[in-house]
Design brief:
Length: 578
């Protein structure tokens, strides 16, 4: 059904032997490689490296490159002083944002039905405010991007989008799953349809969905949620013609992941195929150029290239960055970002997601009456389930753990992703789900008032403690709520209440929704990582609306009565409004 191509480099020497095959982040000599990018970013003309690579050219690329060469020859070692460099940038580049025109989604309306399901008046008013935010996050790409793509880093897509917000001005891949589910609750079916069509367009162009809507993202993807976006839309509309047209494109994306991101691993004498994040780009990320350069200082060229490849792979995971991807010389993940080895880890959540893709593709083919194709995807899912349970499941601990390709062992640190098969319902025995609930209770991750942290390691990275991220909260809550036991369902509600409470308290204080939150305190945004916390925020809004829809009858903004029996007394006291 698919061709397996295995790239598994357990040594720098192995990586170096194929480095000639590694392409740059994109073909642009301005936005992705070359002396302009290098000098402007190293001069730190802007607080955020992403700012420069989002700027529009005022002239054709060859004119800008020629002007830069002429200017650089006026100075020793062709290094242009910062003041002159700033003048050059001002002369030849426009501020970011000119690639978009204002756009209000035409299918937005005042009173979507789900608002009526929210019993708490404060939360209902807040949900209405979140629903209003879709209007401010709408973007339409100007026709000039289509007509003159060489002047932009923006990738043209034909339909308007809802963006995450803040520095994330453009479309992003996995964020959009929760955005689209929120839009469907807001009865904005046309906007959701347009966003999915954009992703299908990108697969037809690239063979996969890039990380985001910029050319410097052209060589890496993000967690493959497009099949699930199509499922959400189909469940809302039952549009069979849309589904029929989407299926072959979804299969193209699936083939990309199987051909470029799969690894054969032998456990207990049996060989299994699982997937990983793996980006064959061994240069600094243009949007985080100086971060990547500085991190690599003092390393040999081969080690720099491996570091940059694994930083790109970490960015593909969506968890950029986390101690989850660290690997020291002994193969343990208690090191630093300089020892990131994302490509040498088989992630539990990616494989649970791909299993769900396979089951969903099988379901789509059955809807279309193609039993043979459905059977092929069912067989692929069965093989993956066997692999997940052989390689990632730990019966003693009662959870699934990432697998280290270097040490041929599991990483046992806590991450919410350890329960991702519960979300995907990707396990063969009912007791596995219940064991996972007990694992979560023992993990120490439930002791925080505002949600489940992304890890228990305070590494300074944003996908670690004390940050909690909307998609991880939703996957955990959704998975627990599907288990049959009342204990699991209570825990799901408990976590939903905590998450809604911290989102709401932060909104009351800051009048904003944030991309991540701190699990401690009384409602505040998260921090750490490569940039300041961003507000907006697409997936946060989508997750909040989904939880308010699912639990609206019982969630509360301030009354202790709804959840006093579910939380420990200390947490209950912390969560209660003063």
């Amino acid at each position: 059904m698919y061709k397996l191509i295995v790239f598994c480099f357990s040594s720098v020497a192995a990586l170096a032997s194929v480095k000639a095959a590694f392409p740059p982040p994109c073909d642009s000599e301005i936005y992705c490689t070359g002396p302009i990018l290098q000098q402007v970013q190293k001069a730190k003309l802007f607080d955020d490296d992403k700012y420069f690579v989002d700027m529009k050219l005022r002239e054709a690329p060859d004119v800008v490159l020629s002007a830069f060469r002429n200017l650089s020859h006026e100075f020793p070692n062709t290094t242009i002083p910062s003041a002159k460099l700033q003048e050059f940038v001002s002369a030849y580049f426009e501020e970011p944002g000119t690639e978009f025109e204002s756009w209000t989604p035409p299918d937005w309306h005042d009173e979507p039905k789900f608002l009526g399901k929210i019993a708490d008046q404060e939360l209902r008013d807040w949900a209405k405010n979140i629903h209003d935010l879709w209007k401010s996050l709408g973007r339409k790409i100007r026709a000039s991007v289509k007509d003159h793509p060489e002047l932009y880093s923006q990738i043209y897509t034909p339909h308007p989008v809802i963006v995450p917000g803040g520095r994330f001005r453009e479309l992003y891949y996995w964020d959009s799953y929760w955005v689209i589910n929120g839009l469907l609750l807001s009865e904005m079916t046309d906007t959701a349809h347009g966003m999915i069509q954009n992703f299908l367009y990108l697969v037809n162009r690239y063979g996969f969905v890039p990380n985001g809507g910029r050319i410097y993202y052209e060589r890496r993807s993000q967690p493959p949620f497009l099949t699930l976006m199509v499922e959400s839309y189909y469940q809302a509309t039952k549009d069979k013609e849309f589904l029929r047209a989407a299926i072959p494109v979804l299969e193209t994306e699936y083939s990309f992941w199987m051909q470029n991101h799969s690894v054969a691993v032998k456990v207990n004498g049996a060989e299994h195929v699982l997937n990983r994040y793996y980006v064959r780009v061994d240069l600094p990320r243009p949007e985080s150029y100086t971060d990547d350069l500085e991190l690599a200082e003092g390393l040999t060229d081969d080690h720099k290239e491996q570091l940059w490849m694994d930083l790109n792979s970490g960015a593909e995971s969506g968890w950029d960055f986390s101690s989850r991807w660290y690997m020291d010389s002994g193969g343990h993940n208690n090191s630093t970002l300089r020892e990131i080895r994302t490509s040498q880890i088989l992630p539990t959540d990616l494989n649970a997601l791909l299993w769900l893709n396979e089951k969903t593709l099988a379901s789509f083919h059955r809807i279309m009456g193609d039993g043979d194709s459905a059977a092929r995807y069912d067989q692929a899912a069965a093989r993956r389930l066997a692999a997940i349970e052989s390689v990632l499941w730990d019966a003693e601990r009662g959870a699934w753990f990432d697998y280290n390709l270097v040490t041929h062992s599991k990483h046992f640190e806590f991450y919410p992703s350890n329960l991702s098969p519960v979300w995907a319902q990707c396990f063969s025995l009912p007791e596995m789900g219940e064991k996972a609930v007990e694992y979560l209770k023992r993990s120490g991750a439930l002791q925080f008032p505002n949600g489940v942290p992304t890890s228990l390691s305070d590494s300074g990275q944003q996908w670690d403690y004390p940050n909690a991220w909307p998609p991880l909260q939703h996957m955990l809550i959704s998975g627990l709520s599907k288990l049959p036991s009342e204990d699991a369902k209570k825990l799901a509600f408990d976590l939903a209440q905590r998450w809604i409470k911290t989102n709401w308290l932060a909104y009351v204080k800051y009048e904003a929704m944030f991309e991540k939150y701190d699990v401690n305190g009384d409602g505040k945004p998260g921090g750490g990582g490569e940039y300041e916390v961003q507000l907006g925020f697409g997936w946060t809004n989508g997750v909040a609306l989904q939880l308010l829809d699912q639990y609206g009858a019982t969630l509360t903004s301030g009354s202790q009565s709804v959840f006093s029996g579910l939380l420990p007394p200390l947490i209950s006291a912390i969560l209660t409004l003063q």
